[in-house]
Amino acid sequence: MLHIAVVVVVPHWRLALGPGVLPQQLQMFVEGVIWLSLEGLGQQADLDSLLALLTLPVLPEAELVPSSQQILVRRPDLFPAVQTILLERLPPPTRAPSRGNNHGDRNHSRQRPAPHPCGLGVD
Predict the structure, then answer these.
(1) What is the number of structural domains in the chain?
(2) pLDDT given for residue 66 in this prediction
(3) Which pLDDT tens digits describe the chain residue by residue (123 residues)?
(4) HEC letters along the chain
(5) Can you tell me the distance from the alpha carbon of 113 to that of 50, in angstroms, rounded to the nearest whole number?
(6) Does residue 62 sit within a domain?
(7) What gap in Å lies between CA 111 and CA 18, rounded to an integer?
(8) What is the pTM for the complete model shown?
(9) Residue 76 is part of which domain span?
(10) Torsion (CA) 52, 54, 59, 64 in degrees, nearest 10
């Protein structure tokens, strides 16, 4: 006999998925589903690095950098995935517009972009 497990990953439990009352056959199916909340998963200590990576999109902004650093200490090969998530989640750094210099030489007024706040580098 073939057994199939269905896992539904949700960012948090605040989602309203469908009507409150389901037809009986659908209700029986839904009761057999394994539900996984990324927000709840992110509250667990000592997660596997890949599971911790899944929680980055739903972590509070203040926890992103420390959590990312913990992931990368254990799994540096996950850097491209961590970097992509952080670049999407964190706002880009801003700088005040440069006023240039008094000599009219524009080359001296060029500045290198500010590093990203994730502290992981994007070069």
Answers:
(1) 1
(2) 92
(3) 887 888 888 888 776 666 777 788 888 888 888 888 898 888 888 889 999 999 999 999 899 999 999 999 999 999 999 999 999 988 777 776 666 555 544 444 444 444 444 555 544
(4) CCCCCCEEEECCCCCCCCCCCCCHHHHHHHHCCEEEEHHHHHCCCCCCHHHHHHHHHHCCHHHHHHHHHHHHHHCHHHHHHHHHHHHHHCCCCCCCCCCCCCCCCHHHHCCCCCCCCCCCCCC
(5) 31
(6) yes
(7) 51
(8) 0.61
(9) 39-89
(10) 60
Q: Which residues pair with 36 in a beta bridge?
A: 9
Residue 84 belongs to a domain: yes
Token pair in block for residue 102? 């008094």
